[in-house]
Amino acid sequence: MTKTKVLISGASVAGPALAYFLQHDGYDVTVVERAPELRDNGYAVDFRGEALDVLEEMGILAELREHDPKMTGTTLIDERGVETGRLPAEAFAGELEVPKQALTRILHRITAGGVRYVFDDSISALSQHESGVTVEFKRGAVSEFDLVIGADGVYSKVRQLAFGPHADALRHLGLSGVGFSTANYLGLSRSGLLRQTPDTAIYLFSLGTAERLTVSLSFATTSSALDRRGRDEQEQAVRAAFAGHGWETPRLLEAMSEADDFYFSSTCQVHLDHWSRGRITLVGDAGYCAAPTSGMGTSQALIGARTLARNLASAGGDHASAFATYEAELRPYVAENQEKGRQTAKMFGGGA
After folding, report:
1. Which pLDDT score is estimated for 43?
2. What's the whole-model pTM score?
């Protein structure tokens, strides 16, 4: 019997997780990733509730627990750096927190033996027909697949090609920000510092690495337009937002310009009337991002991947039925997480 050929775009979390379940269900799975190699960006991801069951089912929960830095909590400070309160570790870390690099490497390791990974390439065109999807790639040869699944993040190329422009799906939550790392000159160890003003927030933390300090500088914005601008313009926006701020702010702005892991993003959600079009569907942030402020992105990606795979396996080859049931089951969970994302964005100065 010929295996169903599935193409997954994106090799971060949702894509490899879905590939794991589909491979075990007998599918012929290819994952395409535009990065030249496995991505090591991202600082920490956390898991809550049912996501832990997914990790257990995949056989990696115990291994991931070994990577938990066991954060001790976050100290709230005012504009002078004086402590005003404390937040427990669970406020940011969930029930389990690990460096994202550890998660992506483990997911790749447990799938690489039975899943075809293609790095340094991306989808450039999709054409559906009665028996499949013709896929054109930026570098590779044109190929045929039975199903195509976008697991390629907020700015999903699959969603753009199959569902329409990013602007039609993205909802900006009023926050943008930059992340980077610098020398841990404050001596933080498995702890964080949070300083907020009505329109800005500085969050500093160390995941147990004595030498490095992770920095997040967020500020109120009216759109996500800066996401598509160059680093110089993004840095200028950050400097303007934090101009005149005291405490460690000037030193952090200087470190931002020197950082080689600079990352800028806006806090957005993805809202679509339907997550599927014919033989193409979406999973994780590509289809229903709840925003980083929800604290549920990684958990939602894992649960979404398992839910989609389970429905495909039980539908007996009827992808339309599987996609519909997947969406019906998951939408209430996504709606709850997206509401959390909106409310937390407001707490950090967003205008959602």
Report:
1. 75
2. 0.93
